[in-house]
Amino acid sequence: MTTTALPHDQPIGTRIDWLFDLAERHAREYAGPEAFLARQRYLAQYPTAILVLKCMDGRINIPVATQTPKGIILPFRNLGGFFQLGWPHLGETLVASMDKVIRSGRQALMLITYHYSRGDERRGCAGFHYRTDDAREHTFEIQREVSTLFGADHGSVYPLVCGFETDEDALVVHGHDGQTLNMAELSTDDIESLPQRLLQLLPDMPTQIRHDLLPLLTGNLAHIADIRRHQRRLNIEHREWMICVGRGFDWLHLPNVALIIGPYSPDLADPIRKAASIIEANMRAGRIPDDGFLLFSSVPYEDIGVDRARAVLKSRFMARFATDVVRESYPELASRMTVRETVLNWHSRSVEALDR
Question: Average pLDDT, stretch 14-19?
C-alpha cells in the first residue's frame, strides 16, 4: 500500500502504521527550510493572524483551499463545527491566542465557517443533520459572541462568517445586509476587482485585515480553477475508523478518516458517544473492517519541561476519559479499540507517541 492511499480496507495495525507515517511526513515538510522561509515571507507581507473555527470534516482544509503556506492559519476543529465561547476552555484558549497576537502589535481575522455541498445535501454537515440553514445560523451566533468577547468595533479581532462549499472548495464570504461574495461565481479574471468588492462587502473591516484577506481569496480562485480542470471525484461515503480527542490535528486533513473532537465543550462525553456510534455503524455496514478502530489523543505543547509535562498529563487524561465513555456506552465496540496517546511539538509539528 502506498503512503498516499487511504487505508480504509486494511487491517487496523496497517492503518495505524500509515497514520503515524502520515504525521511524520507532515512534520518533515513543515520543518523544512523552504516551508519555514515561505511562512516567514508570508507573515512579513501579510501580518494579520488568521484563525478558523470549523467542523472536524477533513474536506475543510482552508490552507489548501486558499493556497496558504502551512502553519499560517490556526485551526479550531470540533464535531459538527459547534462552538460556544462561554465554554471555559474554548474561551480561555481563544483569549490566550488573541493576547499573544495583540501584544505583538498585530490584528486578527477569525474565520467562522459552516460547510455544505451544492450538488447533494447529504454531502453537507452531518453534525447539523445536513441542515445548512441551521449550520449557517450557528456561525452568526458565534460571530455575535466573538463581538461580545473582543469588542463590537472589530478594530483588533474581526469575526468573519464564511461558507465552504465542499464540491469545489469554494469560500462564500458573508458581509453586511445579507450580501455574500461567492468565489465559485468569480474567476481569476476578477482578481483586480476584489479589493473594491471587499470594501463594499465589508466596509467596517480594518484596512490591514482586508489587505491580508485578499491572498486567501485569490488563492481560493486559483484552487477552484484547478479543481475544475481535474474534475475530481466526490467521496460521500462515511468510512471513519478513528476517534481523535484534543488539538493539534492539522496534519490529519483527509476525508472520511477521522472524527475529531476538540477539548472545548464541558460535556465531552456526548460527542464521544456520537463518534463511537458512527464507528460502530461503519463497521456494521462493512464500510471499514470490524477488526478494530483507533482512539487517538493529542495535546500540543510549546516548551519543554513543565509545558510538555502538562500536555502529557492532559493527553493521558483525555484518552482515559474517552476510553471510559466508549466502554460504558459501547462495551462490544470497546473490545476492538486501540488507544494511542500523543503530544505535539508545536514548533516542529512532530507527533510524539507516549509510552503506555
Answer: 94
